[in-house]
Amino acid sequence: MGVDPDELRQSLLSRVMQTSKGGLKGTVYMVPLKAYEANNARDALAKAVYSKLFDLIVRRINQSIPFSSSSHYIGVLDIAGFEYFQVNSFEQFCINYCNEKLQQFFNERILKEEQALYEREGLSVKKIEYVDNQDCIDLLEGKGTGIFDLLDEESKLPRSSHTHFTSVLHSTHPRHFRLAVPRKSKLRDHREITDDQGFLIRHFAGAVCYETAKFVEKNNDALHASLEGLVQETQNSFLRALFDEK
């Protein structure tokens, strides 16, 4: 990585804190991280490098393929299918969110827009009924009160916890058709999950009960100042360029 091993070790095991009040305002402290915090810092660094490298590869591929803005193309998208396991965590939540978005795209382009076109052209075609999943999309990604935003807010708290996040989620949407407590699940094992340990989403493909034990930990991938400064000053010019790009 082109960084000093001792500095990397220190950055993974501690973080910089600067006081903002009192007579010692501006004083800098090195605060040791707990074991799980150090693990999170390590994972956050790995994810940051992977994410920036992935974005770079995509940009380079796009730049190497000459085409005009008006060119027609066929895009092939291959994502994981809808997932529903005995234990469903943050990974399944993100995958199923992608599938909800894909289903929404299908509803809009293939069903809603095509049927509107038939009507405008005066074609007598039997109307296809479908279930609009916009309310589920809003629950997941809605600004301020969506599940992703609530999770991001929880991740910023000094004493964040999955139980607090789950309780806030249920209290924010107490009567939402798409959201329910685990005891509403058809599976007995899921019904044993307490209200502050999980939630049930009624997706377009079926209801899924998610256990939130690792949600905050898996969502919290921000680099703390020590690690961010370290990679920005690396002797590895390629890695430094990755983090310099906006």
Automatic annotation (TrEMBL):
InterPro entries, per the entry: Myosin_head_motor_dom-like, P-loop_NTPase
Protein's GO biological process: actin filament organization; actin filament-based movement
Keywords for this protein: Actin-binding, ATP-binding, Motor protein, Myosin, Nucleotide-binding
Claim: NAD is one of the keywords in the record: no
One of the record's GO molecular function terms: actin filament binding
Keyword Isomerase among UniProt keywords: no
Listed transmembrane segments: none
Domain of life of the source: Eukaryota
GO cellular component: endocytic vesicle; myosin complex; plasma membrane
Domain (Myosin motor): residue spans on this chain: 1-246
One Pfam family hit: Myosin_head
Family from the record: Belongs to the TRAFAC class myosin-kinesin ATPase superfamily. Myosin family.
PANTHER family: MYOSIN (PTHR13140), UNCONVENTIONAL MYOSIN-VI (PTHR13140:SF745)
UniProt-recorded name of the protein: Myosin motor domain-containing protein
Organism: Rhipicephalus microplus (Cattle tick)
